[in-house]
Amino acid sequence: MRTILITLSILVIFPSWANDPSLTVEEPAPGLPIYNYRIDNCPGILGFGKLYYSNDYATKSISDICILEQEGRVLGAEPLERLELTKKGRNGRAYEDLASGSSDYDRNSIKILPDENAPGCVQETVESFHLLRKDTPVSNSSNAGTSFMIGYTIPATAPLPKAKTAEIWFGLRDISRGRIDGDTAKMGTFEPSNDFGDFIGKAQFSDSGGEITLEEGGGYQYGDVSGKLLVQFDNLGGFTLEGSFSAKNLRLAGFEPGEFKQLSGDLLRFRGHILGSDGAEMLGYGLARGVVVDEAGKSHDFLATAYIISCMSDAK
């Protein structure tokens, strides 16, 4: 599957503080509800993650965030204010807007935790975060309800990965299918699905980029897989991916009604970071589009977020 993309970028200024950095919003595929947010010159803790919404199954985003702990604010696609430090310990810390709800599960909040992706992979302290913002006028959806975001902080980066070869985990999450109208999927009307899964691949890197070959399923959902992802380094500690992928269900018989049998898709936008001063950890998130074929042979368009994880701490 080969996709030609036209992008649209919009500059947004955070409304709260005059000296805040600007937020740039890109639409990787105009007409689809997917967005890429960037922040330049974060004066606090820079992070990056994926964003999805409780009542809008189609809209997906990736976004930088800027965590201003001393000011009790988070800048990004769904900013937070009036945050107070409510928890602190060896397992992380939490900041909550106490006036926004009666419990920590019902408040606008961000939880900053030890690295959940590749713990201990780099010497610097990479952290994970979970952000929740409820009942807000969400940036790009009129009926979004609560927004959820997960991601990682970026304490230090390297221009290139530590190793020339690496094992890579790549996966799809937050998949939403187009509903069926007869035998034709209707793009724009989506419902959540359980078609998510993981790929294991092998990467070969050069000084400018590389290639990831997807070789096997991660063992829980996907069986036979294939695909190639092209890597491009920006020499500033970041990278992008583009490419296609396909997977078959690990199940061979006994499918439930509506269960997927196979899927294929493309990355519409994907970016990430080479973390650690030695470049031992690669993390990233992206946005994907494709087609799912269910057990009855009917095709559904899908949108999804994607992720990548690799740890090269043992590389010489």
Strand content: over 45%
Q: Uncertain runs with pLDDT below 50, 5 residues or more?
A: 1-6, 182-188
What is the total number of structural domains?
2
The helix count comes to 0
H/E element sequence: EEEEEEEEEEEEEEEEEEEE
What fold name stands as the CATH topology of the largest domain? Porin
Give the CATH class of the largest domain.
Mainly Beta
Average per-residue pLDDT, rounded, comes to 88
- Report Rg: 19 Å
**Number of β-strand runs:** 20
CATH architecture classification name of the largest domain? Beta Barrel
Class of secondary structure makeup: mainly beta
Shape: globular
Distance between the termini: 37 Å
Main sheet summary: 11 strands, mixed
Report the helical percentage: under 10%
Outline the structure in words.
The chain is mainly beta and 316 residues long. The protein has 2 domains: 8-153, no CATH class; 165-311, Porin (Beta Barrel). The protein is built from no helices and 20 strands. The protein has strands at 8-13, 22-27, 34-39, 45-53, 60-68, 73-76, 84-89, 92-96, 109-114, 127-133, 147-153, 165-181, 184-192, 197-205, 209-217, 222-233, 238-249, 260-275, 281-294, 299-311. A hairpin with a 2-residue loop joins strand 12 (165-181) and strand 13. The model is unreliable at 1-6 and 182-188 (pLDDT under 50).
